[in-house]
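Input/output pair, single chain:
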Amino acid sequence: MSHSIQFSTPSRTLHLPHSRLHLPHSRLHRPLSSFSFRQFPLTSTFKHTSLRASSSPSPDSSSSSSVLHSPNGTPAVKSEERSSGIDVDTVTEAELKENGFRSTRRTKLICTIGPATCGFEQLEALAEGGMNVARLNMCHGTRDWHRNVIRSVRRLNEEKGFAVAIMMDTEGSEIHMGDLGGEASAKAEDGEVWTFTVRAFDASRPQRTISVSYDGFAEDVRVGDELLVDGGMVRFDVIEKIGPDVKCLCTDPGLLLPRANLTFWRDGSLVRERNAMLPTISSKDWLDIDFGIAEGVDFIAVSFVKSAEVINHLKSYLAARPGGGDIGVIAKIESIDSLTNLEEIILASDGAMVARGDLGAQIPLEQVPAAQQKIVKVCRELNKPVIVASQLLESMIEYPTPTRAEVADVSEAVRQRSDALMLSGESAMGQFPDKALTVLRSVSLRIERWWREEKRYEATPLQAISSASSDKISEEICNSASKMANNLGVDAVFVYTKNGHMASLVSRCRPDCPIFAFTNTTSVRRRLNLQWGLIPFRLSFSEDMESNLNKTFSLLKSRGMIKSGDLVIAVSDMLQSIQVMNVP
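Output:
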């Protein structure tokens, strides 16, 4: 017999402030059946709320017959039996079996897919290395190329048991370079003179000539302006204007990449007037968005967001199209405008990306770390996943090991409790994409382990974000469940959620243990793979929590992912409750 403690809410009013919930700091060393309610000194005030102990029978061992084996030898589920089985990421499953609950990585990893990683075997290697989300940069490649990558990722998920989500990143209408005449890159050396032009070339372009996407470029730029490529990776001084051509002297050498962003500075200040007049979502972006809807991407990242109005407009457009309402919208914070309107943009979006490369071209470099910390903090407070991106391991595009400064940068992003870290050129075109991913994974695991060893539970209070009564209840339940998980030293928090919201509320609290998020929808499962600490499972469940728990215990035990005696806390958005129990 296994026992649980359940806080059920038959009415819509529940007063359970987690700051007033005091629990023992030591782990339970005996089954909960030996505890009485007096041993849990609950000082919260309940209104129309019952507190009861429920007893659940041992799971029926016959229910494990639906679990089969995947190609790598780990249990999997055939499509015709998915209604009674469970889907989980095969890498996470192996980690849980070999090293236990505390081995799981909480910080999620995103890889930009490019020529270096677009093959099926390369994508599989990234997934096995810990990739949670595959990013497609619509600045590069054709839609047919992106379609092939999307279908390869979907096939990988279906055949190999992964849950890799797909994020499509729009190009935006800011000023960009052209495609370099088909070349993968070009090297600009110190002292060379290059020509930036608005002319289109029918034949091959002249040597050291770059086309620019903005027709008014030659009119707006002035002699003496400083031109920054890709957030300052290469710098030029404007020395001459001849019709549609702008002659520039390279002052900081570097690698020029196709479709790189261009900004220009005058008298020490960013020239913003022209970019401010450009639309956030260009005509090409709208075509790419329609493509993303048709292909069923999980997220769309919007470049150079200036206000919440843009996000709301896109979300209404997505909601009006079949399948579009399931797509999450990620706001890229990479301009002065986006920092000015930060909170309203994050509130309107489904997540945010700290795009430090372009952001560093619009604000002084020394301000970027503080801006990153602020963005991460605001996203956490508003319960929106946040991605730290750009130049995390830039040197690994060419070298097999990172600089020590890059490792420290990654460590700081993990220490700030960011939801996800993103590789850009390192995985898209770098020579060592697998090694770069390994560095992100190993650094994340080490910093997370150090955090747990130091018992650095979150001390910063999180503001209430819910307005509706039922949402307030869910929020308080998740806050209390997370605090109980830390105080009791539980092995995992189980969350049963249909739309993913309650799982995100638990993730927001950053509990010390992993969070098993069970959902009955494949698309929700993939989207949950972006959020900190969540291990998303696809599982068909009912409104009966005892039945759900029995089924979950049976399936996970049959696959060796949990064992009898493990202590778990279970919450659900179907029956707003907290249950604490040992696995029977």
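Residues 433-453 form the longest helix (21 residues). The chain has three domains: 2-72+86-100+468-582, 106-173+279-453, 180-277.
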